[in-house]
Amino acid sequence: MPLTEGFDELFVEFAQELRLHGMLIGSDDVITFCNAVSVLDATDVMDVYWGGRTSLVRRKENIPIYNEIFQRFFFDNWEEEASEAKKKFRAQVSTTSTIEIPENERTEQGNSSDDTKMGFMAASHEIFRNKAFNECTPQELTALRKMMSNIRLNPPIRRTRRLISTSKGKKLNMRKIVRENMRAMGENREIYFTKKKEKLRPIVFILDISGSMADYSRNLLQLAYSARSANQKVEVFCFGTRLTRVTRSLSRRNPDQAMELAGTEAMDWEGGTRIGDAINTFLKKWGRGRVGRGSIVVICSDGLDRGDPETLAKSMEALSRIAHRVVWMNPHRGDADRYVPTSMGMIIAEPFIHEVVSGHNLKSLEEFSRKLVSIR
Asked: Which of 59, 66, 82, 282 is deepest in the core (most CB within 10 A)?
């Protein structure tokens, strides 16, 4: 995003402060620093920190000085001595960003755990991981989405029927052994084995963007974007009253652009909910092909369906037959060890679901990403 108005003078002042403490910084370095932050995010502490560190620090021995001045300049004595530019920066930066200082860069005095963080940036990540999305402020949700971008969903691996040759294994590849022996006139000494070829299992996200899911839908779409960025075998669909494929939109490298494009493509945000019709559309257009057959289908919804119950039952039954696993992510489950469905949609769909997981906060999404790899 562009450099926020008023921050440029603040960053020049910061560079001057570093000069006063013995660091050799030229005008070209300051310009590079400001240009770097202008194409990053001036309201993200990590972007500002690393933008300055890569452009203003030339010697390794200056890193502890830079760390100390950065903390003192931006975060100490806010109430008494802070300028208007500093107060504006303090009000807009992401308060959940943390910067871990490597062991070999800490000063001799900096042995406490507090000194390994930059001032207020040491805000506990656990608080935000356990806080439900519907209880977060807009600023906290922005910070959580940045943390969520680091989640990498790794699809489980499946074994195919096709055999491939390998140097180690349990089953001899007699065809290749005989072929190589004939080619080497009986002098070949290599032994070859076979094993089943492995492939990544496809993942399909079907996200409920209706009004009842307004507090969660955009965060779950961010999860789908992270999954799509990590692996191309991920398909993403959104639905309210109709189903929309947003996979191509989420393939953009810029996350903000991808999310905006996906939001524009799906026209029925925060409207009604027709889960059965959406799944039925998926089955007709994509379910029978490589997208749906043998995949792990993750339905993210609270189950508050306004459609025909019979359509939902038939669609879920058909989906369970072609999918490898059907996982239902329901934010209303929360942290409960045992979930008892209460909405009509969940009651109808439950017999065809392999597992119900929660998606109400960052911690539950991280747990789901770790669990996904072990699904067989």
From this structure: 282
Mean pLDDT (the chain, rounded): 80
Q: Shortest CA distance to 49 belongs to which of 124, 105, 132?
A: 105
Q: How far is CA 238 from CA 172, 276, 299, 339, in A?
A: 48, 13, 10, 25
What's the CA gap between 204 and 206, in Å, rounded?
6
Residue where the block lists tokens 């001045």: 69
Encode 98-129: b = buried (16+ Cβ within 10 Å), e = exposed: bbebeeeebeeeeeeeebbbbbbbebeeeebb
Which H or E run includes 364? helix 362-372
User: Which pLDDT belongs to residue 111?
Assistant: 42
User: How confident is residue 253, by pLDDT bands cut at 50, 70 and 90?
Assistant: confident
Mean pLDDT, residues 85-100: 52
Residue 162 CB coordination number (10 Å): 9
Give the homologous superfamily in CATH for domain 203-372. von Willebrand factor, type A domain (3.40.50.410)
CA distance 303 to 339: 13
The model carries a pTM of 0.64
Task: Note the residue count of the chain.
Answer: 376
Give the Å distances, CA to CA, from 54 to 33, 57, 118, 215, 253: 8, 6, 17, 38, 23
211 three-class SS: helix
200's enclosing H/E stretch is: strand 193-200
The per-type count for the chain, helices as H runs and strands as E runs, is 15, 9
> Is the Cβ–Cβ distance between 375 and 156 less than 8 Å?
yes
Q: Looking at per-residue confidence, does 195 or 127 come out higher?
A: 195
Question: Quick one: which of 373, 376, 374 has its CA closest to 152?
Answer: 373
Show me where the domains of the chain are located. Answer: 7-123, 158-199, 203-372
Among 192, 261, 269, CA closest to 238:
269
pLDDT in the model for residue 165:
84
Instruction: Say if residues 151 and 363 touch (Cβ distance below 8 Å).
Output: no
